[in-house]
Specification:
Elements lengths: L1 E2 L9 H17 L7 E4 L16 E5 L8 H12 L3 E6 L4 E6 L5
Parallel strand pairs: 1-2
Antiparallel strand pairs: 2-3, 3-5, 4-5
This protein binds zinc ion.
């Protein structure tokens, strides 16, 4: 896992789970050698209610993911993380956003 410069991660169990499942999903769908990049955690500017400010959300880079694997990767990550989490492909922002659902605690 690579981290974009200045990314701040809250190392709670939620973020650790997202990081390890995202890595697993990338290995399953892309290549074992593919190194995903986390582009945002606690840092950055997000909507007011965003889970980023509560250590519940992480973003991952989309740009090196081959186009035809973008949706399969999203679905794989969603399957691995289960219903307590939400995986979004935010093409306009060039990243995947993953959050733990508010009602899952
Ligand atoms: Zn996000």
């Amino acid at each position: 896992m690579k981290f974009k410069q200045n990314v701040i991660i809250m190392f709670n169990s939620t973020c650790q789970n997202i990081l390890s499942m995202w890595e697993q999903a990338c290995q399953n769908i892309i290549l074992v050698e593919y190194e995903p990049e986390c582009t945002s955690g606690f840092d950055g500017t997000h909507s007011l209610e965003s889970g980023h400010y509560y250590g519940r959300s992480l973003d991952f880079s989309l740009k090196e993911v081959p186009f035809e694997l973008r949706w399969p990767l999203k679905h794989q990550a969603q399957d691995l993380l289960g219903a307590d989490y939400l995986v979004l492909l935010e093409a306009g922002k060039n990243h995947y956003h993953i959050q733990r659902q508010k009602d899952s605690f």
